[in-house]
Amino acid sequence: MSTTQQNRVLANMREQYSHLAPTLQLAAKYVIDHPADFGIDPIRTTAEKIGVSTYSLVRLSKELGYPGFEEFRDPFRRALRSTSKPIINSNWLDELSAHGSTGVTLANSAENSMSILKHSLRQMTPETSEKFVEILTNARTVYVTATSTSYALAYYFQHIARLVLPNVQFIPRDMANPIVDLNFASDQDVLLAITVNPYSQITVNACKFAREKGLKLLIITDSNLPLAELKPNAVLTAEMESPYVFACYLGVIAILESLLHLLVIAGGDEAAENIKSYRNLKAKIDGTSPF
User: Fold this and answer.
1) Does position 51 have pLDDT exceeding 60, yes or no?
2) How many CB atoms lie within 10 A of CB 59?
3) Would you call 42 exposed, middle or buried from its count of C-beta atoms within 10 A (0-12, 13-18, 19+)?
4) What's the Cα-to-Cα distance from 193 to each of 39, 230, 262, rounded to whole Å?
5) What is the pTM (predicted TM-score) of this model?
């Protein structure tokens, strides 16, 4: 019940988002992207993370129909209590923290990594995941694109997915613009784009071009709000919080791995045979055992 109430609040925020003032949009985006942290942190900590005043959070609460901040946050706290379970025994983290500054840093990093995995995979609902698999497996051609750090992840996904989906292509080819590779695509095809903040204009333009040509659009990102105007068929969102300067891509990797797992299962015996054949060929080429 608590989770249902939280989901209703999040759905209401998404509906009201475009009508909010810029500062309140910033706060709403944070709540939507980090519901667990919002349920835990005091108002001052939340305001500091977002970069707004505590008054802005109070304003957002009232704008959404709540008498105050605590009433607005209450569904998130209830949902957290009803769903929070330890991912792993924390004794080893305490022991690790006892080994000087390096141990403390490693413990903080490990805790952050587990939190990212948990929140990213919790947002990967069966309904959205099934839609991804259905669209990917029914497409004539699957185009996969990304830039910057996401480029390597998109290439990895295509490299494995081609064993199940022989029609998957990684674009852009030869470091060109992905729009060039989409020129002859049609409504029988799909574009899978990976992009996170700051969102690559090259990727966003490719998504817009794909929609103009009638392609189905799937996006893996860190927040579906900034990309809502693209009207994707489905979106998977990953947690990106990091204790260091750069974003942590562990959540994106976890989503891609889970998606590959689902595709392999959907591929059935044919997918299993393709993987076995590939491993045998690699073993023959490399002169190693496939087992």
Assistant:
1) yes
2) 18
3) exposed
4) 31, 12, 18
5) 0.74
